[in-house]
Amino acid sequence: MARSAADPWLNGRPPHLPIPEGERLPAVCLLPGDPARVDRAGGVLDDFRLLGQNREFRLGVGHVGGVGVAVCSTGIGGPSTEIALVELARLGVGTVIRTGGMGALAAHIAPGDLCVVTTAAREGGAAACYADPATPARSSTDVSTALRTAAASNGEAPHDIGVLSCDSYYVGEGRPVPGLEARAAARLAAIESRAVDGMDMECETVLVVGAALGLRVGGILVAHASRATDQWLEDYEPAQLRMLRVAATAAAELGRASTETR
Ligand SMILES: O=P(O)(O)O[C@H]1O[C@H](CO)[C@@H](O)[C@H]1O
Ligand SMILES: O=c1cc[nH]c(=O)[nH]1
């Protein structure tokens, strides 16, 4: 059977995500940007199995308390994140939780702090294909609630935040690039005048595209850096593991509840 250009799936397998034929994914999937974080997440799950890697998409499955949890990296930015979301939704995933890093803008958020994403300010291109730019990007209440509950049970006290998701890490996030220092500084000043607590590159896409596809959506981010104090967390691994433990606990709770209501 020939692949269709309009709908290039073959034998139930998508063109991008590396899923073996016949494999069924759990209802809830964690979405790190960095493919290396899939294996880190595997370290906090039971019976972790790597299903494969294609391009920036690294996919694995495991369990928490007997409940299945998938982990799929999205790569950096909106376009690859959109691909992951559409293919995961068609593979049966119903809830997605971004598990990423961010640069904190709010002075009260220190490097290493955990943050539950409630909203994302919209600037990206991929999400605009799915919902008019005026449509707010919001996390599903039950995902945010599950993340806060899971954080408390892991001894964490995350901040609730609004994040700006940006398609550019350097000048777009106000970082000086040779010859473009003034432009980057003006951009940073403009961002600082907005009511956002941090910057990442995928939350908007997860919230908007995921919601348009009918998924429950949310995110937990760890501050890798503070733009307010210009600090950068060099020993980043422990903070990522704390975030992943919270996300995995929440994913299992959401997955258990969705299995019970099926
Ligand atoms: O920590 P992850 O999920 O990789 O995401 C953050 O890190 C990348 C930039 O270094 C961007 O993708 C940003 O959103
Ligand atoms: O500063 C940062 C850190 C992580 N991710 C970003 O997008 N920006």
TrEMBL record:
<dbReference type="GO" id="GO:0005829">
    <property type="term" value="C:cytosol"/>
</dbReference>
<protein>
    <recommendedName>
        <fullName>Uridine phosphorylase</fullName>
        <ecNumber>2.4.2.3</ecNumber>
    </recommendedName>
</protein>
<keyword id="KW-0808">Transferase</keyword>
<feature type="domain" description="Nucleoside phosphorylase">
    <location>
        <begin position="28"/>
        <end position="231"/>
    </location>
</feature>
<dbReference type="InterPro" id="IPR035994">
    <property type="entry name" value="Nucleoside_phosphorylase_sf"/>
</dbReference>
<dbReference type="Pfam" id="PF01048">
    <property type="entry name" value="PNP_UDP_1"/>
</dbReference>
<keyword id="KW-0328">Glycosyltransferase</keyword>
<dbReference type="GO" id="GO:0004850">
    <property type="term" value="F:uridine phosphorylase activity"/>
</dbReference>
<dbReference type="GO" id="GO:0009116">
    <property type="term" value="P:nucleoside metabolic process"/>
</dbReference>
<dbReference type="InterPro" id="IPR000845">
    <property type="entry name" value="Nucleoside_phosphorylase_d"/>
</dbReference>
